[in-house]
Design goal:
The structure holds two protein chains of two kinds.
Chain A (H helix, E strand, L loop, with lengths): L2 H10 L7 H31 L4 H24 L7 H22 L8 H22 L4 H5 L1 H13 L7 E4 L2 E7 L2 E3 L1 H26 L2 E3 L2 E3 L2 H21 L2 H19 L2 H21 L1 H11 L4 H5 L5 H13 L22 H34 L3 H25 L17 H23 L7 H5 L8
Antiparallel strand pairs in A: 1-2, 2-3, 4-5
Helix pairs in contact in A: 2-3, 2-4, 3-5, 4-5, 4-15, 5-17, 7-8, 7-9, 8-10, 8-16, 8-17, 9-10, 10-11, 10-16, 11-12, 14-15, 15-16, 15-17, 16-17
Chain B lengths: L1 H28 L1 H6 L4 H9 L5 E3 L2 E8 L6 E5 L6 H4 L10 H5 L1 H5 L6 H10 L7 E4 L3 H11 L4 E6 L6 E7 L12 H13 L22 H11 L7 E3 L3 E3 L6 E3 L11 E3 H6 L3 H11 L1 H11 L22 H7 L10 H12 L4 E2 L4 E5 L5 E4 L4 E3 L4 H17 L13 E7 L8 E8 L6 E7 L11 H17 L2
Parallel strand pairs in B: 1-4
Antiparallel strand pairs in B: 1-2, 2-3, 4-12, 5-6, 5-17, 7-10, 8-9, 11-14, 12-13, 15-16, 16-17
Chain lengths: ~475, ~475
């Protein structure tokens, strides 16, 4: 073979490897915009609510921006192929949340550490730090597969922690919190991540036996007990704990996560049928027997009935949230210019109604759009990933966020009965923020491995010449 | 796995569709209803920070919001509180609003749909929203004249431009001071409100359009006559038997004329003279001959049995749908269970004076946004055509005769032909009469129609008459319009 023919051959194969730097540069541009939104939101709520800007608080927001840029730099080093949209999206959401929480604190004349917004900034900083840590420590997500039983164990322990005396405390009728000095923490939020890792790991390793072997009952194939055993035990344990802790929202969340991951892993729609009917029966029984559940259902069905409105634990809060949303209308009252503080717990469960009041329907659509974008990036991992564990974990984490958004916003807007859950990235609460930022870090890690597979892109000109193109 | 993933993504998408839908429904489609809920304190707070638009008469504010240094930011102030209390109504922080303050609250507070862009503008510029200014059709000179003429009587006066429907005067007594209800001390406001509410003379009623309505008495003969003329079975010259008393069927009672004797001399009396002298017996005969259906339909064409917005909602005047023979006869001269507001009786005069065409009465001259855009201005609209031009002309002649040479002599004005009809309505055994006058002037080309009601017999118990008490009041109001 002559030199000339060889060089012609290689030059016709134009391999185009994706350039990681381009993804990170795109992310940087988007981040500049996102951080801009975050800082201006904080400035606007201050202007709107008190007419002057407190420079020190604004500076704290700038510090958050710097930390996020630090995470961006980390990504450049340890996950250059990671998805460029995830970080800007959660920056905007987190920024809006911080601004709104601070704004509601201002309405209650809370300054400094007393203002939940300042605490939220501190928690965000911690969450970003932990997310960076996750990215640095977990260089390859497949190691998580190995630790699936450790994940299971820690998930259950986290769920059980609030039941302990002294450090476990009960708030608003649910025993979910740990209190250590001035800090309170909801370990159940972190359990969500641990259980998703366990479910994904276990389902991937037991998948074949789960979907191939089984007994047929009523036209549906059920797996053998020993294949399903561990997962049922974990599931039942978490349900029991949640019932005792009176936290319906979280129970619903784990149930949905469990069901969807099982379905995606095994491809058996019989699980969905069985799961949903179990859930409906359970929900019906709970609404009839547990008074606090029944009250929620009454408040949902007929919130404007004075009987429900005036009842303790009735629809007062729900209706105030609806009033707030209605007051916002299409365009909102403007940041800092509404009265979101009228609604009880506006900074946590009802932050979406506070944002809807001041940013209007347009703002809520934007927020929902950002959520949808975030979730779709997670699902992308499921569709495009190379290994089943990564795919399943990506989908599980994305779905748990989606379901959480649906349960909490659906509860506030009367799609479903209200159950207490935090709005991801927006609501006040350190544990929720930490858990969600860890989820984001995991999704970034997973997306990096998706992109990291070298790909051949056929050069159109080479294809036009009908040449065989060979890749690595 | 991809098939399952697709299905799960569809489920996620559906969940978001549900959220997009629910937020849209709450924030757009159901928003007005939610804002109007009495338990919505946001609406209240919003009304504080918005500078409520003024209510103007001839360009001068009769109600305006003055900046004050408390959380409510503005104090609603009424410059002529008593004279205009029936018109303005009251504006309270949380006890509801009435009058123009209530019916045009959306405009005054700046939250009406036509002010949407101004709201957007206020949000973008960061300024507090402002409400629109409402200019009324009230003529301050006529209003003052009506206020003075009514004196200490309990009753109401309304004057309306016959050609446009513009309400020139609206006075109801006893009046109240809306400043006492606009304060920012809720306890004080509630105490003041309770006191007004428990006052037996009912100062919170706007007696021109609402409150407990009175029997219209003889002023209703205009409607009976109109029905008779429209039926074409009767003319002004139709003759009726003229006894001293007429036995009321199914009872031992008799109908008498107000003087006690016959209606003028003679065996029979014409409809024209019966109207001029305001005799009851011929009209009872006429009512019986016509039957209740024709009278009901005629009354409804004038506006009976339906309420209207001026823009405050009026209480519907009543002509009952089902009447037996004695009720039919008594109703024909405005007794039994017939009830009417001064607005309603003024509308009868308006239609007669305007050649049979009844214009829609209104108080609103224009509504102007803070940026001087005119959101609404008076467009005279036709309410209906209750009678023909010929019937209107015939009734006008009867009403002119009633004033110049009949029962309404006290409404005469030198040099001007006044058309009018008095009414002296009985309320029950021993109760003081309700005294009425309605009419218009000048008779050939009217500029104004008026209706006056004086309750409690004008302090004269059963010796007061429409001509004695109500006609002089109407006269002064007509003069105020004609000689201003």
């Amino acid at each position: 073979m002559s030199e000339t023919s060889k060089s012609t051959f290689t030059s016709s194969i134009r391999l185009k490897l994706r350039e990681p730097a381009r993804l990170r540069n795109l992310e940087l541009v988007l981040l500049v915009v996102a951080i801009g939104i975050m800082i201006s939101a904080m400035a606007l709520v201050q202007l709107g609510a008190q007419g002057v800007i407190d420079a020190s608080v604004l500076l704290l927001t700038v510090v958050l921006g710097v930390l996020i840029l630090g995470m961006h730099v980390t990504l450049r080093i340890v996950a250059p192929d990671a998805d460029p949209l995830i970080l800007p999206v959660i920056t905007v959401l987190n920024g809006l949340g911080v601004a709104m929480i601070y704004r509601i604190g201002l309405a209650d004349d809370a300054a400094g550490w007393e203002n939940a917004g300042i605490r939220q900034i501190a928690w965000t900083a911690l969450a970003i730090g932990l997310a960076i840590g996750v990215l640095l420590v977990i260089r390859n997500h497949r190691v998580l597969l190995r630790y699936r039983y450790i994940a299971m164990f820690s998930g259950i322990v986290l769920l059980l922690l609030p039941m302990l005396p002294i450090i476990g405390v009960e708030k608003n009728g649910a025993r979910l919190w740990l209190e250590l000095g001035p800090f309170s923490f909801q370990p159940g939020e972190l359990a969500k991540v641990a259980l998703a890792i366990f479910f994904a790991g276990y389902l991937v390793s037991a998948r074949d036996s789960l979907s191939m072997v089984g007994r047929k009952v009523l036209g549906m194939t059920f797996p053998r007990a020993r294949d399903l055993g561990p997962i049922l035990v974990v599931f039942a344990a978490s349900m029991l704990v949640l019932v005792f802790q009176r936290d319906l929202g979280t129970a619903l969340l784990y149930f949905g996560l469990f069901l969807v991951m099982l379905y995606v892993a095994t491809g058996r729609s019989s699980w969905i049928v069985l799961g949903l009917s179990l859930f409906l029966v359970g929900a019906f029984v709970a609404s009839r027997t547990l008074s606090y559940v029944g009250g929620r259902v009454d408040a949902w069905l007929d919130p404007f009935n004075p009987e429900n409105f005036d009842a303790i634990g009735g629809s007062y809060q729900l209706v105030q949230g609806l009033f707030g949303l209605a007051d916002g209308g299409l365009i909102g009252t403007g940041l800092g210019r509404g009265r979101p503080d009228i609604t009880p717990l506006a900074e946590s469960d009802y932050i979406i109604s506070a944002l809807g009041e001041e940013l209007g329907l347009i703002g809520l659509f934007a927020i929902l759009g950002l959520y949808l974008l975030f979730i779709s990036r997670g699902f992308r991992i499921g569709f495009a990933g190379q290994d089943d564990f990564g795919r399943l974990l990506g989908v599980g984490l994305a779905f748990v966020i989606a379901l959480q958004i649906f349960v909490v916003i659906g509860g506030v807007t009367r799609v479903i009965p209200l159950t207490g859950l935090t709005t991801p990235f927006l609501a006040a609460g350190g544990s929720s923020l930490v858990a969600n930022w860890i989820i984001a870090a995991l999704l970034l890690r997973l997306s990096d491995s998706v992109r990291n597979q070298p790909r051949l892109v056929i050069d159109p000109r080479a294809e036009a010449e009908n040449r065989l193109v060979v890749g690595q | 796995m991809n098939k399952e993933l697709k299905r799960v993504s569809i489920v996620v998408l559906l969940m978001f569709v549900a959220l997009f839908t629910s937020t849209s429904v709450i924030q757009v489609f159901a928003a007005d209803e939610l804002r109007a809920d009495g338990r919505n304190s946001r609406t209240l707070f919003a009304s504080y920070s918005a500078e409520r638009g003024p209510i103007l008469v001839n360009g001068e504010p009769i109600a305006l919001s003055v900046p004050v240094d408390d959380v409510y930011e503005f104090q609603r102030t009424y410059t002529f509180p008593d004279i205009y209390s029936a018109v303005t109504g009251y504006f309270t922080l949380n006890q509801g609003n009435t009058g123009i303050e209530g019916s045009l609250n959306d405009y005054l507070s700046g939250t009406s749909n036509s002010q949407f862009l101004d709201q957007v503008n206020a949000i973008v510029t960061g300024q507090n929203p402002k409400g629109a200014a409402v200019e009324l059709t009230i003529d301050p000179i006529v209003q003052q004249a009506a206020w003075d003429a009514l004196g200490d009587n309990q009753g109401a006066v309304i004057a309306i431009d016959t050609k446009t429907g513009a309400i020139l005067a609206m006075v109801s007594k006893p009046a109240f001071d809306p400043n006492g209800l606009a304060g920012h001390d809720t306890d004080q406001v509630i105490a003041a409100y309770e006191q007004l509410l428990s006052d037996p003379s009912g100062p919170l009623y706007n007696r021109t359009i609402a409150g407990p309505l009175n029997p219209p008495g003889s002023t209703f003969k205009l409607i009976t006559a109109a029905a008779a003329l429209e039926s074409r079975q009767f003319t002004a010259d139709s003759q009726f038997a003229n006894p001293v008393q007429l036995p009321l069927p199914q009872s031992s009672n008799f109908i008498t004329n107000s003087g006690g004797g016959t209606c003028g001399g003679g065996e029979t009396v014409s409809m024209f003279d019966a109207m001029r002298l305001s005799c009851n017996i011929p009209f009872a005969e006429l009512g019986q001959a016509l039957g209740t259906r024709d009278i009901l339909q005629q009354a409804m064409k004038f506006g009976f049995n339906s309420s209207m917005e001026v823009p405050m909602e009026s209480t519907a005047s009543v002509y009952p749908r089902a009447l037996d023979v004695p009720q039919n006869m008594l109703s024909a001269f405005g007794q039994s269970s017939v009830r009417a507001s001064p607005l309603q009786m003024a509308m009868v005069s308006m239609a007669i004076g305007n050649g049979g065409t009844l214009m829609q009465p209104t108080l609103v001259e224009s509504i102007t946004a803070p940026n001087l855009t005119v959101l609404q201005s008076l467009q005279p609209t036709v309410y209906g055509q209750p009678i023909s031009r010929e019937t209107a002309a015939t009734l006008t002649q009867m009403m002119v005769a009633s004033v110049s040479n009949g029962a309404g002599s006290n409404a005469r004005i030198d040099g001007v032909e006044v058309a009018g009809k008095t009414g002296t309505a009985e309320n029950g055994e021993g109760d003081p009469y309700t005294l009425w006058f309605t009419g218009f002037a000048p008779a050939n080309d009217p500029r104004v129609a008026v209706a006056v009601v004086v309750e409690n017999g004008g302090g004269l118990n059963q010796s007061g008459t429409g001509n004695g008490v109500a006609a002089p009041i109407a006269k002064k109001v007509l003069e105020a319009v004609l000689f201003r």
